[in-house]
Amino acid sequence: MFLRSFVLLIASSFICSIVSAQTRSFTHADTLRGTITPERAWWDVQHYDITVKPDYNARTIAAKNLMTYKTVSHSSKQRLQLDLQEPLVIDSIILDQSSLLTFSKEGNAWHVDMPDQSKNSKHTLAIYYQGKVHEAKRAPWDGGWIWAKDSLGRPWMTVACQGLGASVWFPCKDHQSDEPDAGASLTMIVPDTLVAIGNGRLQAKTDNKDGTMTYTYAVTNPISTYCIIPYIGKYANFKESYKGEKGTLDINYWALDYNEKIAREYMPKEVHNMLSAFEHWFGPYPFYEDGYQLIETSHTGMEHQSAVSYGNWYKPGYRGRDGSGTGLGMKWDFIIIHESGHEWFGNNITTKDLADMWVHEGFTNYSETLFVDFIFGEESGNAYNKGIRRGIRNDKPIIAPYGVNAQGSGDMYPKGGNLLHAIRHSLNNDKLFREVLRGLNKTFYHQTVTSKQVEDYISAKTKFNYSKVFDQYLRTVQIPTFEFTVVPGGTTVRYRYSNCIPGFNLPITLKNGSTVVKLLPTDQWKETKLAKEQAALVTAENIENMYYVKPVVVENKTAK
């Protein structure tokens, strides 16, 4: 999703609206949604095949989902948990085109009575459902179906549902840990005056001769349920082929018909810069098979896989504003860069639990810094990264409780990005750091992961144990203090960390041309002898420019 910390700078009410995961009381409904319950554990989703017919005037949908799954353990008259949020209702469920199943409802969880099924067998549930659908009021911050109008008063529809969940509009196993292994297809039946777009590639377009058209789109790769999204409106399309790291990437651009001219002039340059930068840092775009799409929407934007939503008004910055306060953010389109960055971190690598969403948002926040670095130079990247710190609140930990569908602090964006920047500069080896980023996308290609897997990978690849660094920035709200003094004569530096967890050990590397100094502070006083030109680099300004710590010069007699 787009940078929540950015919104803090202009509308702090957004973060305030996020319920504190550390103080709220979780309910049975939270557990049903956030946990792999016994009714979820015995089956693995293989494919979703959704058909939806929206009624714009009535604000309703009539739909079905053909959900194919594989049993991963023997099911002896087990129940199966589906998720579908009110006010939508399930009318009927049919197993393997033959058996009408019974089911009961518990809030937004639907418990389906299943017959005996052997391990490793495949089955399909046809789930028919309909009704009013939860409507987004402030998309994408509160999710749901978006019944909008374009500037000419014509229907314009889509969905935004990250966090709230895909079950707001279709029945599914609404848990990030289980993506459909064989992808998904989306069929949309719409008035023939409108165009419908879905994730991936167009499979079929049919004139129904009754005033409606049917469009079917599909992706072949695994996909998060919250990324499966319809786009319906008066769209114009143009396309191109991009020569990328993995070959030819098919790109489709979709704009409202009256915006086609500006879209043709504006979108491709931003997308080309994005792909050049991100394929350099992260490796090949992860979904060449399904292509890349950029689709105009009424809301600001979301990272829908192979169908990125775009509502930034064809302006640089974030709707004409710069979240870093440096001016650098006004040189590129924030939504195109940030939301596309999620194709690597969020869509290619997806967290199993919402609690670990910093892997999505922290890395994608840092993709902005890496983009600025790639296009405008390292000094600009450093300045941008420091600038976004003003969105950090340290209100609660970034990692939330597990198993209850909870998200941590919105600091996962700028603080997560600053954490990664600190690791990068502590290494002082961009070749290795780039190998880490590309290695993550290769090792966890199309997988769901935990934060710990990512943390452990980084420590192993860099051959330095960053576990305490991750704990400090992800699991506490303390800003580490770097206490230091340069002994008179300028050849000895004494230093330590305070206001930190025991064992916090973020290395500090400072450089100016060929002069480099590397300190290995802990929470205990250390002393390092340096050349005068090295000691001259150890200043509060230099440290604060590169690291999210609070540098404090202490008296020499104190530093013992």
Which stretches are low in confidence, meaning pLDDT under 50 for 5 or more residues running? 3-22
In total, how many beta strands? 28
Largest β-sheet summary: 8 strands, mixed
Question: What structural class should be given to the helix and strand makeup?
Answer: alpha+beta
Give the CATH H-level superfamily of the largest domain. Answer: tricorn interacting facor f3 domain
What is the end-to-end distance?
Answer: 47 Å
What is the mean predicted local confidence, pLDDT? Answer: 95
The number of distinct structural domains comes to 2
For the largest beta sheet, what order do the strands appear in spatially?
Answer: 5-4-8-2-1-11-14-13
CATH class of the largest domain: Mainly Beta
Strand content bin = 25-35%
Helix content range of the residues, please?
Answer: 25-40%
**Count of discrete alpha- or pi-helical segments spanning 4 or more residues:** 14
Identify the CATH architecture of the largest domain. Sandwich
**What is the CA-based Rg, rounded?**
25 Å
How is the CATH topology of the largest domain named? Answer: Immunoglobulin-like
Overall geometric form = globular
Keywords:
560 residues, 5-stranded mixed β-sheet, 30% strand, single chain, 28 strands, disordered N terminus, alpha+beta, Immunoglobulin-like, 8-stranded mixed β-sheet
